[in-house]
From TrEMBL:
Domain of life: Archaea
Source lineage: Archaea, Methanobacteriati, Methanobacteriota, Stenosarchaea group, Halobacteria
Claim: Isomerase is one of the keywords in the record: no
Annotated ranges, domain Tyr recombinase: 24-233
An annotated GO BP: DNA recombination
Name of this protein: Phage integrase family protein
Record key words, sorted: DNA integration, DNA recombination, DNA-binding
Presence of the UniProt keyword DNA-binding in the record: yes
GO terms for MF: DNA binding
UniProt cross-references to InterPro entries, sorted A to Z: DNA_brk_join_enz (IPR011010), Integrase-like_cat_sf (IPR013762), Integrase_catalytic (IPR002104), Tyrosine_recombinase_XerCD (IPR050090)
Length: 234
């Protein structure tokens, strides 16, 4: 086979993969599905009802990752500026942090498990340390307020977060896939539809790459429609 052929095959393979791979944005919940999910949270027994609501709201509207929710601490809240400040570092040695440290040490010969654990917990990337406004709706603001009335930190495992979301989704009879990361994608999509620009969307979501924000905005079509209407309706 000539190099040209194999290149073309590689391209075709990648292209096929791009067309058939399942993307998180395909699992995004509609506004109606998200409301049904929140409604279902309240039907769960206490304290799971509130925990599920807290998770669904801060993941599904503010885009927090499951790992961030599992390490959420009320010291992250800036009440003067109504911001959640995801820190670069939060001392932790939970089961998840230990497992991650072991993995990191396995991948990097110059790093010991102890050294890896010393910098845990930290968010996924440097861009993930960010400030997230929580006064975007009264509903969100109240949920954060209720959380601080009850807890100092979330202090539940990643697994618990998955379970709460799953329980709420079952209760809501939401067919298909509902999981913490699809709630994060739901938040991104929600803000893209509202017309949030690429740079603030990237900052909110803590993406390292502007292209991800641009992808959500392109899929939403809002920016395209607005730009075309501005030209044609003047
Ligand atoms: Zn931890």
């Amino acid at each position: 086979m000539t190099p040209h052929h194999s290149e073309r095959n590689a391209w075709a393979k990648r292209h096929r993969k791009a067309l058939t791979a399942r993307h998180t944005h395909e699992d995004v919940l509609t506004d109606r599905e998200f409301e049904l999910l929140l409604e279902a949270c309240s039907e769960l027994p206490s304290p799971r009802a509130f925990q599920a609501r807290f998770i669904c709201l801060i993941a599904g509207r503010l885009g927090l990752r499951a790992g961030e929710i599992a390490h959420f601490d009320t010291t992250w809240l800036d009440w003067d500026r109504m911001l959640i400040r995801i820190p670069q570092y939060e001392p932790c040695a939970c089961g998840y942090c230990r497992r991650q440290s072991i993995q990191e040490a396995t991948r990097n010969d110059e790093l010991t498990e102890e050294e890896a654990l010393e910098v845990r917990w930290h968010p996924k990337t440097i861009a993930s340390a960010r400030a997230i406004p929580f006064d975007l709706s009264l509903r969100l603001e109240l949920c954060i307020e209720r959380f601080t009335n009850r807890y100092d930190s979330f202090s539940h495992s990643r697994l618990t977060i998955n379970r709460r979301v799953q329980e709420a989704a079952n209760q809501a009879n939401l067919n298909g896939r509902v999981y913490p990361h699809c709630l994060r994608a739901t938040a991104a999509s929600y803000h893209a539809y509202k017309g949030v620009a690429p740079v603030p969307l990237q900052a909110l979501m803590g993406w390292s790459d502007l292209a991800t924000a641009q992808k959500y905005i392109r899929i939403s079509g809002t920016a395209t429609a607005d730009a075309l209407r501005q030209v044609h309706h003047r």
